[in-house]
Specification:
This protein is an alpha+beta fold and 138 residues long. The protein contains two helices and four strands; from the N terminus they run ααββββ. It is rod-shaped.
Amino acid sequence: MNNKKNQKGVILLLTLLILSGILVVTLGAASLVLAGIRMNRLTGYSSIAFFAAETGLERVLWEARKKDPKLVLPDDNLNDILQCDFVSNSCDLSNGSSYMVNYATSSPPLVPASIVTFTSTGSYQGVKRSVESSYQTE
């Protein structure tokens, strides 16, 4: 009879331990799911930023090819060569992304031509991606 009195709280303690274990496993799984959702969202933002950078690069190459008088290619390096917006120093797109194109030139030794390099950086929701293109002038 004395043995039964000592076991009255064991079921309650065992139940609490099992529920605590289930809670820990559930919180761990929820943490993994939320991390996956966050990663998926950032991957989408990264794609949009990359395409914005591609847009900037295509535009500056098109401007350079048609020799737009607004696009001046100086002999030294220049940030934000397209100068779309003087306040933000970037060109905004309709989907909320933006791009900025930088210009650099270099003359390799013993070569009469110079190498022109455009670097376009696209950004969306704090994610930035860059693309670069170079060509040699005569």
